[in-house]
């Protein structure tokens, strides 16, 4: 499953539609954490930072609201593509960590119920 809506914002730059497609493709891999959730919002912001001695620097920021939680990642690199890759990796790590925490709590609750049933409580 991919994100139902992705809002793109641009600061100090013009971005080709192919880059929007790349973002959608990269973020589609995060769909495994969304599941059947319908309350999902995603914002992607592209920005070209003012000139640096090292050349052009690009910034990509992605905010995802999922079940009332905000997941955010920001990356600054020499190309938008490299920044998108880093942002996707950061979001994958963050969403995976939260997913694992929820699964652990569910298992813990199940163990407690099972133990209570064994003891006749």
Key structural traits:
Double Stranded RNA Binding Domain; 45% helix; 121 residues; 27% strand
Give an overview in words.
- It is a single chain.
- The chain is elongated, with a radius of gyration of 19 Å.
- It has one domain: Double Stranded RNA Binding Domain.
- The protein is built from 3 helices and 4 strands, in the order βααβββα.
- It has 121 residues and is α+β, with helices and mostly antiparallel strands.
- Helix 1 runs parallel beside helix 3.
- The mean pLDDT is 87.
- The N and C termini lie far apart (42 Å).
- It has a 4-stranded mixed β-sheet, covered by helices on one side.
Q: What's the helix and strand layout?
A:
Blueprint: E1 6-11, H1 17-28, H2 31-34, E2 40-48, E3 58-66, E4 69-77, H3 80-118
Parallel strand pairs: 1-2
Antiparallel strand pairs: 2-3, 3-4
Helix pairs in contact: 1-3
User: Helix and strand string, N-terminal first?
Assistant: EHHEEEH
Distance between the termini: 42 Å
Query: Any idea what the shape is?
Result: elongated
Q: What can be said about the biggest beta sheet?
A: 4 strands, mixed
The CATH homologous superfamily name equals Ribosome hibernation promotion factor-like
Question: What's the helix count?
Answer: 3
Low-pLDDT stretches = none
CATH topology: Double Stranded RNA Binding Domain
Radius of gyration of CA atoms, rounded to a whole number: 19 Å
Helix amount, in percent? Answer: 40-55%
Q: How many β-strand runs?
A: 4
CATH architecture grouping: 2-Layer Sandwich
Structural class: alpha+beta
